Amino acid sequence: MEFKNILLEKEGKLAILTINRPKALNALNPETMTEIDAALDDLAKDTEIQAVILTGAGEKSFVAGADIKAMQNMNVMEGREWALYANGVFRKLESLEKPVIAAVNGFALGGGCEISMACDVRIASKNAKFGQPEVGLGITPGFGGTQRLPRHVGMGMAKEMIYTGKIIGAEEAYRIGLVNHVFEQEQLMDEAKKLANAMLVNAPIAVKLCKQAINRGMQVDIDTAVNFESELFGACFSTEDQTEGMTAFVEKRKEKNFKNK
Ligand code: CAA
C-alpha cells in the first residue's frame, strides 16, 4: 500500500512511523487510520524490525485528535463503525509484538492522546499537550480514552481530565505518570532512539514475552497473571537467546549475540 498520510521509515532494527498531515495538525481521518492499520500489519510481519517509534510530523503537533471535519456529519452507525475500527487498530498497535515508543512532539489531544496511550512508553517534548477534550464537542472519547486513561493515571485524575476536557502540559503529564520523560523538542527523536536502542540490545524474544506478560497480566486477577508469567518464563528456556544470555554472563562476556530464537 502506498502511504499518503503517514511515513514509515526503517533504520536497521528500528522503524519510525510518522503521522504526516501537518496542515491538519496530524488529525486522524479514515484514510490515515487505514494507513496506520496497514503499516502495523507490515511491522508485525517484518522480522528485522524489533522496536517502533511513533511520532507526528512537524514541531507543533503529535496528533490533534480524530479528524473533526470527517466526523461532523456522521450518523449513529457511521460513528459506531469509526470507533470500532479505530479501537481495533489501536488494539493492534497495543498488541504488536515489539515495543512501541510514542515520541509526543506537540498536541496529543483526543485520538492523539488515545493513540499515545496504546503505545508501550510515552516520552514528550516540552511543548507537548495532552487532553481528552471530546465532551466539549458533544461526544465521549471514542478510541479507548475512557478505558486507557484511568489505567495509566488512576480513575480520579482520568475523570477530572475527561469531564473537564482540560489540556495539560508535558510537566503535568510527567507528574501524573502519563509520560516517562520530558525533553527539549530538538532532542526528542534522539532520546526516543536511545530508549529504543536500550531495548534493542536485549533478547527480542524476551522483550516480546515481557510485553505479553504485562499487557495480559494487567487485565486479569493476580493468580492468573503470575501463572501466565511462569509459563512465559518457562518458555524462555526453550530459546537460544536464554542460552546465549546466561552463557555470556557466566563467561563475563559483554557482547551478546541474540538471534530472536
Ligand atoms: N480535526 C480536524 N482538523 C483539525 C483538528 C482535528 N482534530 N485539529 C486541528 N485541525 C486543523 C484545523 O481545523 C486547522 O485547519 P484549517 O487551517 O484548515 O482551519 C489546522 O488544523 C490548524 O489548527 P488551528 O488553526 O486550530 O491551530 P491552533 O494552533 O489555533 O490550535 C489546537 C491548535 C488547540 C490543537 C486546535 O486545532 C484544536 O483545538 N484542535 C482540535 C482538538 C480536539 O478537539 N481534538 C479531539 C478531537 S475528537 C476525538 O479525537 C474523538 C475521539 O476520541 C476519537
From TrEMBL:
<comment type="similarity">
    <text>Belongs to the enoyl-CoA hydratase/isomerase family.</text>
</comment>
<dbReference type="InterPro" id="IPR001753">
    <property type="entry name" value="Enoyl-CoA_hydra/iso"/>
</dbReference>
<keyword id="KW-0456">Lyase</keyword>
<dbReference type="InterPro" id="IPR018376">
    <property type="entry name" value="Enoyl-CoA_hyd/isom_CS"/>
</dbReference>
<protein>
    <submittedName>
        <fullName>Short-chain-enoyl-CoA hydratase</fullName>
        <ecNumber>4.2.1.150</ecNumber>
    </submittedName>
</protein>
<dbReference type="InterPro" id="IPR014748">
    <property type="entry name" value="Enoyl-CoA_hydra_C"/>
</dbReference>
<dbReference type="GO" id="GO:0018812">
    <property type="term" value="F:3-hydroxyacyl-CoA dehydratase activity"/>
</dbReference>
<dbReference type="InterPro" id="IPR029045">
    <property type="entry name" value="ClpP/crotonase-like_dom_sf"/>
</dbReference>
<dbReference type="Pfam" id="PF00378">
    <property type="entry name" value="ECH_1"/>
</dbReference>
